[in-house]
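Hi P.,

Sorry for the delay on this. The queue was packed all week, but I finally got your sequence through. Input first:
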Amino acid sequence: MYASLSMTNLRWGAYAFTSFWGAYLLFQLEPLIGKFILPWFGGSPAVWITCMLFFQVFLLGGYAYAHLNLKRFSARHQGVIHTLLLLLAVLALPVTPDPSLKPDNSDQPTLDILLLLACSVGLPYFILATTSPLLQAWIVRINPTRSPYTLYALSNVGSLLALLSYPFVFEPYFRLGQQTSGWSVGFVIYVLLCACIALDFRRLATQNAIVAEPMAIDDEIRLSDKLSPRVLWLFWLALPAASTTLLLAATNQLCQDVASVPFLWIIPLSLYVSSFIFCFAKRDWYQRKFFIPALFLAALALTVVLYNPGKFTLGAQVMIYSASLFFCCMTCHGELYRLRPQPSHLTAYYLAISVGGALGGIFVALCAPLLFPLYFEFHISLFACCLLTLLAVAVDSQLSENKRDNRKLWLLSVGVLIGLGVSLANHAFQTATAKAHISRNFYGVLRVEERFLENPALAKRFLRHGVIDHGFQFLAPEKKHIATAYFANDSGVGLTLNNFWREHGRRIGLVGLGVGTILSYGKADDYFRVYDIDPAVVDVAKTHFTYLQDTAARYDIVVADARLALEREAPQQFDVLILDAFSGDAIPMHLLTEQALQLYLRHLRPDGVLAIHISNNYLDLRPLVTGMARRAGYQSLLVESTADKNAGRYLSEWALLSKNQAFLQQRVFQKFSPTSATAQEAIVWTDDFSNMFRLLK
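Then the structure:
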């Protein structure tokens, strides 16, 4: 008896650890592979959103396989089939994308990313995705008296630990090559564990030591037993679809305005996973009387932020966004847990959840950019989470056991829901109609806005990407030629172009077009070669601003990622190379690595100047450019300029790197000091190693 009990506990422990380890590897792979391919597609936040679409679809594939394996094959064959797939997945190691998969152009980045991920990590990710539903379905046939949902909560603990450990442990201290190698070793360990479990399950099936169908584990009459299959499946699909859509929409906005880096991918995803842990770990951890009021309060607070973002600090906004996401996920997943079926329908339940998640990913990554000019999927998903929560309560029970209080609570809840919907719809309408032009594609949302029209002398036309102004032009004809914003005459780039001369004209490289302001410095014998990854930016600069039309210089525009284009081109012999490529408020990280610097210097003349725009609300890039300059043997100057609204000048910071002493020692530069960072503070990033934490302000 004791031996049997010991064996039962040992087997349960093996299932628990394998569930945990499989989930850990699954969610460790997501930021790892996302960071690996991010530089190949311009560093856009949409790279991570597309990765999430791939993960959701392959998670669905893993859950579908688990469901079909259990329904179509006998218990004796299930373990053998799974063991063969496990061994096949080992052949796909290591999970390092081949450089030959790097795209030649950026015409179809979404499709390119999906194909790349399928080729490099598709099979291992698919196998890991089968772990949770398959092992739970097996253990309830071996030990039908224990709840399998504990394993689901445990697997989500593994997922959360993987997410939190990546930016704090693996990313700061290990290179990408070391990370992929270490992950591959961990996957081999997982394969051995899972193969042993599969073969043990086959042995027990051969000995008729398992039950044919899982039995009810308690006397509880579940809500799922009362509802029709259609209603049940509707909730199983809609609740995870709404929470996944909100997760991706919130991530998109956060990365657009700060930087597309694993740390900021992981904050929303960790909150999402945490809600599964709380809801599935124990039956009474999700309490409606607490979480539903918290949901509506957070949603209302977020609506206030949407209308008045300038009145809230970055920290306050992040906290409100995070709280709203967490409470939406808690209510959606809490109601999803209340709608759980008996164990005999376990794999169908998980399959439906994964279908809902995949639908959310498809909506955000593929449908929303085609349907909406702005990020309206955020408004829709926030309202949908609140609506679905109330609908789930409506089919279950009342909000209060007291009938009189129940009517009041329902009236209040419906009233708040209607008010929230009207506010979100009004905000969406206002943001869409108050702009001269809006366009959206893989690289984000561009908005052209006209401001200060009541004063013709100050009337301006702006280009915004996310919440950041990326340049503007005065509308008055006599002021259209003025260099404005971060590119005024006393800015680092302005001083460089006004004080660097060639007898027979200059060759100037520009990474990031914006509205074309920098071309206002062009002379008749100058040549500008402009690189911009986003074709929409080029269209806006040509149709809504006149800097390109008015410049005296010759120019060519290369629509491609600057690094990929420069890698393919012969040395351009630039006199000045200007780096002003921003996604939201951050330069894509792959443009600031040691390898990128060597590429820039290959295209720069020995006495040329590399001008890097480092103005940023959240990151202090001075230690990075200092480290870059010292590594290359270049002198660097930090040029800071003050703001003047009437003159159209923004506060800006530019780093100038050069070996040209005659240029750097001109009187105009003598008041500026070298980029300030001690030898210990100086930072150098490489393509496979970077740490954003050291740059946070």
